[in-house]
Amino acid sequence: MTIIAVFAAARLVEGDIVEDRRRNAVSCFFCKWSKYRDRVWVPVYISSSYSSSQKRVIRSAMKQIQDQTCIWFYEIYGWSRWYTRHLYIFSGNGCWSYIGRIWWTRQQKLSLSKNGCLRTGTIQHELLHALGFAHEHSRSDRDDYIQVLTNNINPGEERNFAKYKTNNLRTPYDFKSVMQYSNFAFSKNGLPTLVSRSNPSMRFGFAPSVSSNDILRVNRYYQCTAYL
């Protein structure tokens, strides 16, 4: 999981990131959510289309992050969503998010389809995108730790394995990160597209929830001093 801002047309890249031309490819000055009195305030509106049990899963995933960081996901209701800039969690087409806070719209969408996205790790993955973090395999130092097997990538999906200049927040590459792609992401033939250089047989990309490094990076990025 690394910090990055995306620069491209409005479309999905790396499977679940919304690109936007208003983002800078290297740095993102306005990506952070607002901090006040040692808390980072993230207003959230959860779509009424989810059942009560589905909402509990989403809230539980948010709480795991909230309990270990200074991030404060607080729900808004009713008319307040019409005048509050917020994260709108809804059941769209798949699982996807913007990277970091976007400022040109009141309602920042984050899609968690009822069909396949309501798992703790998946929910937290998209929430961390919204907080400003990209995929682990996009790290600037990724070539020291993983090998991208381009011959196994589905034609047209090569851009999903791009490497960016990132701020890694003085943390090591983390195969247990909830932001790590699986070995077989976008494979055209059932063979690995990503392998560990130190252990080619290692399986990764199936984290059930945020890792300790994921949490450390959130706390360093948002300067959550009470949690460092």
UniProtKB/TrEMBL annotation:
UniProt EC number: 3.4.24.-
What is the required cofactor set for this protein? Zn(2+)
**Active-site feature positions:** E126
Taken from the UniProt record, the cysteine pairs bridged by disulfide bonds within this chain are C28-C31, C95-C117
Asked whether the UniProt record includes Metal-binding among its keywords, one would answer yes
Peptidase M12A domain location is: 24-225
- Which keywords belong to this entry? Disulfide bond, Hydrolase, Metal-binding, Metalloprotease, Protease, Zinc
Which InterPro entries does the entry link to?
MetalloPept_cat_dom_sf, Peptidase_M12A, Peptidase_Metallo
Cofactor: record remark: Binds 1 zinc ion per subunit.
Q: Enzyme class, one word?
A: hydrolase
The record's section on SUPFAM superfamilies has: Metalloproteases ('zincins'), catalytic domain
Q: Which residues bind Zn(2+)?
A: H125, H129, H135
> What does the record give under GO molecular function?
metalloendopeptidase activity; zinc ion binding
| A GO biological process held by the record | proteolysis
UniProt protein name:
Metalloendopeptidase
Organism, as annotated: Periophthalmus magnuspinnatus
Taxon lineage: Eukaryota, Metazoa, Chordata, Craniata, Vertebrata
